[in-house]
Amino acid sequence: MIETIINEPLALPSNASPITFDETDIRTRCASCCGWLDYSNGNPNFKIFGNGYTGYYDVEFSASVSTANAGVVAVALFQDGVIIPDTIRAVTIAAADDFETISFDKKLRVCPRGTTNLSVQSVSSVPTPTDPTTPISTTQAIITNATFSISRLNK
């Protein structure tokens, strides 16, 4: 298992930026470069090695988000640069410096003989709820009190 955190506010450089975690607070022996995961603080990519393991993982993210201006903030889980379905989360920030909580919990399968890169990134637009063909542009997020964890499941 690995759990990384962001304690201090992190202003993302754009509304389509990867999130870099500045500290690892939990890392089990099997989640090291010699096990099923390669990760270094400050890098947005978490590389999972199949290595013959079961291939099932639990991925969780939670954060307080804000913006410098009112607007929509959205994040998603990406696998090899592609958004994983059902992981886009969006919230509307009513006023500058208001905070909302955003989170997801996703179970993933990774080929036991392959590798994959996971990252959490802001998303530049989301569908309008009443008219899904019309996108809403998002604003640059400020992330704080964030936790991102990956746990290898036994079955």
Residue stretches low in confidence (pLDDT < 50, at least 5 long) are none
CATH architecture: Sandwich
Overall SS class: mainly beta
Distance from first to last alpha carbon: 15 Å
Q: How many structural domains can be distinguished in the coordinates?
A: 1
Q: Which fold name is given in CATH as the topology? A: Jelly Rolls
What is the percent of helical residues?
Answer: under 10%
CATH class descriptor name:
Mainly Beta
Q: Give a quick account of the main beta sheet: strands, pairing sense, barrel closure.
A: 6 strands, antiparallel
The SSE string, one letter per element, is EEEEEEEEEEEEEE
Mean pLDDT figure: 91
Beta-strand residue percentage: over 45%
Radius of gyration: 16 Å
Number of helices, where a helix is a run of at least 4 consecutive DSSP H or I residues? 0
Number of strands: 14
The 3D shape can be described as globular
